[in-house]
Write a structure and sequence with these properties.
Length: about 250
């Protein structure tokens, strides 16, 4: 469940931080020589990676850095603007290898890198896209990813729409994967272990005569995946079907 919104702070201040047009103190007060936006953001990401976005606060970041909370406000106006810069910093980590000749491979690489990004930083899935974070890393990522479909003869709007479709799939699949991992961590029981423990009772409740298709398909999927759902399989299966659909769309568009 999303707990924060991107673009929720002062837009002018967020843009100044994102593009480092003001990397020093944001007030008239003199800042500490050992602090800076970059160090503050790295500390915030470390906290969010370890404990989730709910654990993030300006005070927690200050404690992590061993400084007073008010020292942070000399550089960052508040938590909302800090989250914007955290997102842009994470976008800057995405791999951008030299594009290959096959557009399907290029677009698949984009999807898999976004899947990996959300697993590196699960807290990103807790930030709802209230407003786009238009920082330098976000723009560079968007520009690179558009290159995967740049030579398909599509309109600019179609290129943007196809990329959004692919990124949406990667985000949704990663969200399910991360939620399953968090459930396992909280319960101390894997999804496979949970289903095995409840299989006898479920077998009594799900009558194959009443639910013939569900019983047959559910049993086949459970045997294939070792649980009710396999996030990696769902991601890759959906990825290939989306690529098939794009290929058909491009062919129909001439």
């Amino acid at each position: 469940m999303a707990t924060e919104y991107s673009g929720g702070g002062d837009p002018a201040r967020s843009l100044a931080l994102l593009w480092r047009t003001q990397d020093g103190p944001t007030s008239g007060r003199k800042g500490r020589s050992d602090l800076g936006v970059g160090r503050i953001v790295r500390a915030a990401i470390e906290i969010a990676d370890a404990d989730g976005l709910a654990a993030l606060s300006m005070r927690r970041v200050a404690d992590h850095l061993g400084v007073g909370t008010m020292s942070l406000y000399t550089y960052v106006p508040g938590k909302a603007e800090l989250i914007d810069v955290m997102l842009d910093t994470a976008y800057g980590e995405t791999a951008r290898p030299e594009p290959g000749p096959a557009w399907r491979d290029r677009l698949a690489q984009v999807a898999r890198e976004n899947w990996a990004m959300y697993h590196r930083h699960p807290w990103m899935l807790q930030v709802a896209a209230g407003r786009a974070v238009l920082g330098p890393n976000a723009i560079a990522k968007y520009d690179y990813e558009l290159g995967a479909v740049a030579e398909l003869g599509l309109t600019d709007v179609e290129m943007d729409s196809l990329l959004s479709l692919m990124l949406g799939h990667a985000e949704a699949a990663a969200r399910r994967s991360v939620e399953m991992a968090q459930t396992e961590q909280r319960s101390g029981m894997s999804d496979e272990q949970w289903w095995q423990a409840h299989a006898p009772l479920l077998g009594q409740l799900i009558d194959p005569q009443r639910y013939p298709t569900a019983a047959r398909v559910g049993a086949a999927a459970g045997e294939a995946h070792g649980s009710a759902h396999n996030p990696e399989h769902a991601f890759e299966f959906g990825l290939q079907r989306i690529l098939d659909g794009i290929e058909a769309f491009v062919a129909s568009s001439g």
